[in-house]
Write a structure and sequence with these properties.
Blueprint lengths: L1 E6 L7 H14 L4 E5 L6 H7 L10 E12 L9 H5 L5 E3 L4 E3 L19 E16 L2 E8 L6 H18 L4 E5 L6 H7 L4 E6 L3 H16 L4 E5 L6 H13 L4 E4 L4 H7 L12 H4 L1 H14 L6
Parallel strand pairs: 1-8, 1-9, 2-7, 2-8, 9-10, 10-11
Antiparallel strand pairs: 3-6, 4-5, 6-7
Helix pairs in contact: 1-2, 1-10, 4-5
Bound molecules: iron/sulfur cluster (2 copies).
The site of one iron/sulfur cluster (SF4) has 14 residues, from helix 3.
Length: about 300
């Protein structure tokens, strides 16, 4: 099983439509897939693919989203600082007597636990929200609703991905497709870390170029193999060429372009999803991009299982 995350540092590039189209293409090519809607704030993929608002979907399966977060017993801590050194998420803070873990910053990676000479660090199960599993025409879609007051979308995205990965392994699926949040913050890191391919979506224009630069930095930060597609390429051939040149300069694989599709844009603006269209300019252009993705993954030494 391999994981593909569609990544865009800029909002509005068509990331969700691309995930839906890839799911359709993968399914048509005979693959078994699961999907992850990792945009806990938007959940557009859930609405688009379920054909209804998620809360009205009769086939929804809900379960608790929990994550084991680290906590320090200050009575045992001697403030040696080893946990702070090992934490890549800056979740450990110190005062004069002991160290403490910021629950909103800890992602539950457990790297600090074996480092503590005092055995002062323990895992504590924390409720983050509700995980949902919805049936779509292409495979199960996993998403999450945050608990009121719960702010760390990174943690809930990690829990959602873990749940989808377990399902995919248990059911021998071929791929997980992830629709991540826009931006490059903690939530985006949680959505893209450990994937087999980060598919970066850029759109023509200066803002699209700046977004691509930020997305490339994020892919590099999480050490994800990256490839690029340009969406809405028909809006400006000149700006599209600039993007293609910038990608070539960095020696990043370029997988193709997708046209601006007004009919699809209108369908995406509906308050309730209509299901993903079976054809159209955008959908018809996706097959070669899916083939390029699956070829890259077949060649990649990195695999999730
Ligand atoms: S579990 Fe991971 S993120 Fe949390 S404090 Fe320990 S090292 Fe940092
Ligand atoms: S490693 Fe253990 S003893 Fe050292 S600062 Fe962290 S919690 Fe305290």
């Amino acid at each position: 099983m391999k994981q593909i995350a569609v990544l865009s540092a800029k909002g509005g590039t068509g990331k969700t439509a691309l995930v839906a189209a890839l799911a359709q293409a993968a399914s048509r090519a005979g693959n078994n897939i699961a999907l992850v809607d990792a945009d806990a704030q938007g959940a557009e993929l859930s609405i688009l693919l379920s054909g209804e608002t998620p809360n009205q979907d009769a086939e929804e399966v809900a379960m608790e989203a929990k994550l084991a977060l680290a906590t320090i017993d200050s009575a045992l801590c001697n403030a040696c600082g080893l946990c702070r050194e090992v934490c890549r998420f800056n979740a450990v803070v110190a005062d004069a007597e002991a160290h403490h873990i910021l629950p909103w910053a800890c992602c539950g990676c457990a790297a600090c636990l074996p480092e503590c000479p005092q055995q002062a660090i323990h895992e504590q199960s924390t409720r983050l929200g509700t995980l949902r599993q919805i049936r779509t025409p292409y495979g199960p879609l996993f998403s999450a609703l945050l608990e009121p007051g719960q702010e760390n979308t990174g943690q809930v995205i990690t829990a959602t991905r873990q749940r989808a990965a377990r399902f995919a392994v248990e059911n021998c699926l071929d791929y997980i497709l992830i629709d991540g949040p826009a931006g490059t913050g903690r939530a985006a890191i949680a959505a893209y870390v450990g994937v087999d391919l980060a598919l970066l979506v850029a759109e023509p224009g200066p803002a699209g170029m700046a977004g691509l630069e930020r997305a490339l930095k994020l892919a590099s930060l999480v050490a994800a193999p990256a490839a690029v597609v340009v969406n809405k390429a028909t809006l400006s051939e000149e700006e599209t060429e600039k993007l293609v040149d910038a990608v070539a300069l960095r020696d990043i694989p370029f997988l193709g372009t997708l046209p601006f599709d007004e009919a699809l844009a209108q369908a995406m603006r509906q308050p309730q999803g209509l299901g993903f269209p079976p054809s159209g300019a955008f959908v018809d252009a996706i097959a070669p991009i899916w083939q390029a993705c699956s070829r890259r993954l077949a060649e990649s030494p990195r695999a999730s299982s």
